Amino acid sequence: MMYMHYCPHCKRMFMLNGHHLTCPKCTKSISELKISYIDYVKLDMDERAAFKIKCESETHLPDLSITYRMHKYSKWYRELQCTTVAKQADEVSAVLK
Ligand SMILES: [Zn+2]
Questions:
Q1: Domain ranges of the chain
Q2: Could you read off the pLDDT of 44-95 as tens digits, one per residue?
Q3: Cα torsion angle, 12, 5, 68, 24, sign
């Protein structure tokens, strides 16, 4: 499976096979994006450019990215994930107000 990732250091998107935590180019940490590979492929050139600009803005990145950790399946991680999702939902509703 291909997944979309964004490296804030290289300022570029990567289509990578599987979930990656580090950039294949600069080896610094990267973010996996919520957008699926299929959805990204469907975007036209203008939409891709707009999406990349959105990724470059660090304020948008937490909303777009998913964090995968080594302890993904542990209980504390799932609890943490629930808290994070709830927090993001709050942030989204705050933006919409
Ligand atoms: Zn990089």
A1: 2-66, 70-97
A2: 999 999 988 888 876 556 666 665 554 445 565 556 555 555 555 565 555 5
A3: negative
